[in-house]
Design a protein that fits this description.
The complex is a heterodimer. Chain A is mainly beta. Chain A is built from no helices and eleven strands. Helix content of chain A is 0%, strand content 50%. Chain A starts with a strand and ends with a strand. Classes of the chains: A mainly beta, B mainly beta.
Chain lengths: 115, 108
């Protein structure tokens, strides 16, 4: 089945630094990938849609200059949290689908802790 | 995208069937109904999806109401490994929005 790999699984960084999270589709090509954020005991919140070869589409309230998304190839999307602050600490999850209207395949998430 | 409503939590005993309900009264005619589940500190896992007809796979069954305003995920024999948060979502996968989900507890 389709597999989405996310790296790193957890990262601790200091306030003010930037962190990059990678999301790869291992056995399929994904023109579209999705980035979610999840706070403890809460549901997943869609942050942005990553489109291969074009700009990402951000959900309302998500700062595009803070959460930089790059989808440079059909198998890789990256999310960079710039100038991270403690309130950015969260569980970040990417997903992708292997064809239109097919179910989403999710990565295992990245636990970001900003100290 | 369809707004979904699910009970916050449900309980079951091991080996018993579990019926997890979901209301999605605003779903459009072409939107699929998807179910995912999430274990602690993991990404969600696809369970099942359907459009109009009932669906079965190795994990579960999905019963969709005739008017498509609700659906029920059926786990035929709950195991301890089925304890998770179950999310139903309605929409096309270009933008799936997740509600609060149902936390399923399974007791031995």
């Amino acid at each position: 089945g389709a597999v989405v790999s996310q790296h790193p699984s957890r990262v601790i960084c200091k306030s003010g630094t930037s962190v990059k999270i990678e999301c790869r589709s291992l056995d399929f090509q994904a023109t579209t990938m999705f980035w979610y954020r999840q706070f403890p005991k809460q549901s997943l919140m869609l942050m942005a849609t990553s489109n291969e070869g074009s700009k990402a589409t951000y959900e309302q309230g998500v700062e595009k200059d803070k959460f930089l998304i790059n989808h440079a190839s059909l198998t890789l999307s990256t999310l960079t949290v710039t100038s991270a602050h403690p309130e950015d600490s969260s569980f970040y999850i990417c997903s992708a689908r292997d064809r239109y209207q097919s179910p989403l395949h999710f990565g295992n998430g990245t636990r970001l802790t900003v100290t | 995208d369809a707004k979904t409503t699910q009970p916050n939590s449900m309980e079951s005993n091991e080996e018993e069937p579990v019926h997890l309900p979901c209301n999605h009264s605003t779903i459009s005619g072409t939107d699929y109904i998807h179910w995912y589940r999430q274990l602690p500190s993991q990404g969600p896992e696809y369970v099942i999806h359907g459009l109009t007809s009932n669906v079965n796979n190795r994990m579960a069954s999905l019963a969709i109401a005739e008017d498509r305003k609700s659906s029920t995920l059926i786990l035929h024999r709950a195991t301890l490994r089925d304890a998770a948060v179950y999310y139903c979502t309605g929409g096309n996968t270009d933008k799936l929005i997740f509600g609060t989900g149902t936390r399923l507890q399974v007791f031995p």
